[in-house]
Structures are given as structure tokens and as C-alpha cells.
Amino acid sequence: MAGKATLSFPTGEKSTISTGLFIDNKFVPALDGKTFGVVNPSTGEEIAQVSEASAKDIDVAVKSARKAFKEVWGEKTPASQRGKILMRLADLVEQNNDELARIESLDNGKPFSISSTFDVPSVAANIRYFAGWADKNHGKTIEVDTQSDFHYTRHEPIGVCGQIIPWNFPLLMFAWKIAPALATGNTVVLKTAEQTPLSALKMCELIAEAGVPPGVLNVVSGFGPVAGAAIASHMDIDKVAFTGSTLVGRNIMKAAASSNLKKVTLELGGKSPTIVCDDADLDNAVSWATCGILMNSGQVCCAGSRLFVQDTIYDKFMEKLQEKFTMIKGMTKDGFAKDSFQGPQVSQLQFDRIMEHIETGKKEGATLRQGGNRHGDKGYFIEPTIFENVPVDAKINREEIFGPVLVVNKWKDEEELIARANDTLYGLAAAVHTTHIRKGIEIAHKLQAGTVWINQHNMLNPQVPFGGFKASGIGRELGEYALANYTNVKAVHLALGRQPPI
Ligand code: NAP
Ligand code: MG
């Protein structure tokens, strides 16, 4: 029998969830009986033990997904029926909004005020959006020069998809991955991040309740180098989709190449520039730049971590930015505190990595304008931090810190600005703040990034594609573009009276 855990929230509520591996719509223990501990990052205390998948468990999950692909899902369930089931899942997410949000906040540390109004509602919106696509993802008929043939394409499901997700938006990344995969008829084996497996386990109950047939969606908790690696190199997984670090993304691609050349999509890191022009609405720009880096404790792949402020407004802008950061420092608290905006970092490891970056920044000669310290005396909280006068080749200017640490630069000449903004391995996102709309658009078109915001930041919609240029990834999630990641295009050529050549 797989285990259960009762979670106690600071608000007094409790939730009991199953902690096994979810295979064939049943919670089962790992074959070798192993479990691992899950920690509340606001306190550092253990809150649950969950099953830990080994490569053997991945094999079992893949067999279940393969059988479901052949026998019940894929071409066996009418596309409109797949859509209907996903619509039901979206409804169930909405009905369980607060419980899912509480679990997410306890496990990840993010404010409940945000998980309950943003993360979980966005999960429902994403699932519903792709549910709508299920019976609308048609191929084309194609006219060619010879009129004696008929040509058309079909968008067929790829098969069994392996999906590996990170810990920063555990439920939302779950939805981004499963919704397009299931809508297009694939079956799935998904591994959650070791730091944040709990909200997906609650989702598994809803998946069964929504009527997703057994084997269509299998969810395992476990570690990257074991369960994740087994997915990436599995000979019977047809596609792997990954969100996380660039380092691991490279490994996934190598494993896919040296196993069965499974299809790969990657959503990796970023070092995204935020550009402020002297004609920007200053208060707005300060607020968006703050949200751009401090939202989700800086643990956002498209965080605006390199800020470029035009020299003529630099001093005024920085004064206002410092005030905002001071305000957020006062709102850096346990996610269940009413006025929390910035929770803890997700783990001791992430906390240590960020503090190391801050120390390196000081040694590299950057000026620490604000923050830079641990916040409070328990949990993994870090003060909102600003560095100025940062050397171009400093590590803090080059590497993704994935924490509440902003690097600020001054700019004067627009051409030089664009070159500096693009001078990074990454190309996930960028933002421009200006009231001059033509200038905003011109700059947006010159930036090498998959997403550019004008006068906002971090705002994403299920309908609009998201993904990276350069080392930030391969493929697009969200929007109609995401469907291509989960379908094989088949061209059918039908002879209409054409004679054989010999
Ligand atoms: P990570 O190691 O890349 O983790 C992401 C996912 O990949 C997790 O599920 C992880 O498993 C799994 N994984 C790890 N090693 C693997 C392997 N060899 N084969 C297959 N899967 C593997 O990221 P992290 O260590 O948690 O965070 C490190 C950095 O990644 C951050 O500082 C940040 O720069 C970046 N990051 C980016 C995003 C994003 O949204 N683009 C999200 C999170 C992190 P575990 O369960 O064992 O972790
Ligand atoms: Mg990791």
C-alpha cells in the first residue's frame, strides 16, 4: 500500500494526500519501497515522505502509458471526448482551488494570496485552453502542380511523452506540460521536482475523478539523476519535454540522442534584460521592474535580472526602485502571512547558491546597493538585493542567479544598449519601458528573445506562445504553437489516376 500524508497549514486547515507513485490511475509504492522527505522552505521542517521512483518504476509507468496509447487514448478516443475530459479536469481544479493553492504554498513557499489567485486559476485556464484544441488541430489539404494526385497532412500524436518539470511553478508547469500532450492524444509519464512533489499528487486524484483513463497520465516523484535520467534515455519514450536548468537540458538532449533519438523540447533559463527609457512612466516602470525580478522570490525563468536604465533618469529611478525594494523586504515572509509578497527560496541548496552569487558579486567589484543578506532566522529567505557598477564579465552579470538579486546598468546610446542587452547566451525574454510606442516596438524587434514585454513583465497567457531563443530552449509552449511539439505531421499522397512511371 502506498502511503498517505496529512499536511497541516499555518491557517489551521489540514489536507490528507496519497504519497505513492501514480501509475495506471492508482497510487502505488516504489518497487524498492524507497521514500524521501519533503520540506517546508519557510521553516526548513519536513512535512511529508513521498515514494521515490527508480528506473524500474519508470519502466512500469512507461508500459502503462504505452498500453493506454495503443488501447484507449491516441486515435482510440475521439478528439472531442479528450477535450471533454480535460474540460472536466479544469472544472475540478477550480472546485479545489484553495486546497491546491495551500498545498502549493506549503511545499514551494510562495504566497497563498498569489497561488490562490494566479497559479491555480492559471492551471485551470491552461488545461481548458488546450481542451478546446483537442478537436481543432487539423491537418491541411495541399494543392500541387500535378492535378492527378490528392495530398493532405494529418497531425498525429507522437506516442508516449516523458515530461520533467521544475519546482518554481510546480502546478503551472505540470499543466503547461500535460494539457497539450493529452489534448493531442499522447500519453504521459511525468516526473515532478524533488523539492515540490505534493500539489501534483493532489492533482492525480482529480485526474482520476475527471475520467482520464488509467495509464494515460502517470506521475512519479523522484530524483533527476535517477528517475529523470531514466525518462530521458528510455527506449520506449517517443518524446521528452523538460523545463529547468540549461546544464540539465544539455544532458537530456545527449541522453535522447544516444538512446532512441526521441524528440526533445526544452524550456531553460534566462538572463533577461529590462530596459527603461527616459520617457517611461517612472512609477509604472519601477513597479514592473520590481515584479520582474522579485516575483516568486526571483525564481522565474523569464525574470528581468539585468536592468538597463537610461543615464538621464538613473538617479531618480534608482531612488524609487530602492524604496520599492525596501517595501518588498517588509513583505518577505511565510507565504501564509496575509501581506507576504516574497516567500523563501525553495531549498537550502538554492539559498546557498544565491548567497554564493552575492558573495561572488562583491568580490568581483560590483557595488552592493541594497540587501545581500539572509532575511529572518529560519527558512530560506533572502533580502531583495540590488547590485550596481557591475563589470560586464562578472558572473552575476552572466549567470542565471534564480533569486531576488538584480543587476543594474546605466545606458546612454541605443545601439550600444541593444548590443549589451543581447550580449548573453540566453534569449528567453526581455522588457522595454517607454511611452513612445514606436520606440518600444523598434527595440522589441531588435532584442533576441522569445518574449518581449512593453510596459509590463512576467505576464503570460495560455493563448500566446512562450519559449527561448539561443540557449534558452527549443520549441514553444502555450498557444497554438505548442501543439506542434506534441504531434507528428504525416503527409499522405493519394494517386487520382496517375500512371506508374514504369
Ligand atoms: P534542474 O536540476 O535542472 O531541475 C529541473 C528538473 O530536472 C527536476 O525535475 C530535476 O530533478 C530534473 N533533473 C535533474 N537532473 C536531471 C538529469 N540528470 N536527468 C533528468 N532530469 C534531471 O534545476 P535545479 O537544480 O532544481 O535548479 C538549478 C537551476 O535551474 C536554477 O538555479 C535555475 O537557474 C534553473 N531553473 C530554471 C527553471 C526554469 O523555469 N527554466 C526552473 C527551475 C530551475 P530533481 O527533482 O532531482 O531536482
Ligand atoms: Mg535539481
From TrEMBL:
A GO term, aspect molecular function: aldehyde dehydrogenase [NAD(P)+] activity
Protein name: Putative Iad1-indole-3-acetaldehyde dehydrogenase
SUPFAM superfamilies named among the record's database cross-references: ALDH-like
Gene Ontology annotations of biological process type: acetate biosynthetic process
Family the UniProt entry places it in: Belongs to the aldehyde dehydrogenase family.
All residue ranges annotated as the Aldehyde dehydrogenase domain in the record: 32-492
Catalytic residues in the record: 267
Organism: Ceraceosorus guamensis
Keywords tagged on the record: Oxidoreductase
Superkingdom field: Eukaryota
CDD domains: ALDH_F1-2_Ald2-like
Keyword Oxidoreductase (UniProt): yes
Listed InterPro entries: Ald_DH/histidinol_DH, Ald_DH_C, Ald_DH_CS_CYS, Ald_DH_CS_GLU, Ald_DH_N, Aldehyde_DH_dom
PROSITE patterns according to UniProt: ALDEHYDE_DEHYDR_CYS (PS00070), ALDEHYDE_DEHYDR_GLU (PS00687)
